[in-house]
Amino acid sequence: MMGDHLPLLLASASQVRADLLHGAGLPFDICVSPVDEEEAKQRLSSEPDALAMELARLKACAVSLDTPATLVIGADQVLSCEGKKFDKPRDMKEARKNLSFFRGKTHTLHSAVTLALDGEIVWSHGDRAHLTMRDFSDAFLDHYLRQAGEKILKSVGCYQLESVGVQLFEKIDGVYFTILGLPLLPLLEELRARKVILA
């Protein structure tokens, strides 16, 4: 599957992103970026697309500086709804509050992926997905939170679309991989163009 060129590193602690790359058959290592996301968000763009891209680039560059001659994948995702940006919930109480806000509305997931080499960004791609939650009952919300459990605290939208979270939605407009936080098809296309994987 791999070409004869640069090794790959994923600068993320996200199990979902790692699973997507593994599923695509890519050999890679993981080196979690040391970037303090909360601090970075205070000084970066407040526009969701730009923020997701800037965070992805920061993560990739931070790891790339210490790993020469290696292509480093950085990725990030921002959720926006009615002009507000949302972070991963701190606890189940905040998850319930966020889901109550999203109920009956369309929110947008802004996903970005970048490649860094020797401390420089060499490629970037951003994408959006629009997801409309149905106007579910309080009883369903309570049931969902019990069933889904604390795994949803790892998701900015308080759901895992590949699991029971799919029941929250009435309409989804966007690429599945973008929703999961890694625009995978453009990334694979770029890796083929760079002869990192076979074309």
TrEMBL record:
Keywords: Cytoplasm, Hydrolase, Nucleotide metabolism
Primary location group: cytoplasm
Pfam family of the protein (one): Maf
Domain of life: Bacteria
Assigned EC number: 3.6.1.9
SUPFAM superfamilies per the UniProt record, alphabetical: ITPase-like
Gene Ontology BP terms: nucleotide metabolic process
Active-site residue list: D76 (proton acceptor)
Similarity-based family: Belongs to the Maf family.
Classification via HAMAP family: Maf
Protein name: Nucleoside triphosphate pyrophosphatase
Organism from which the protein derives: Tepidicaulis marinus
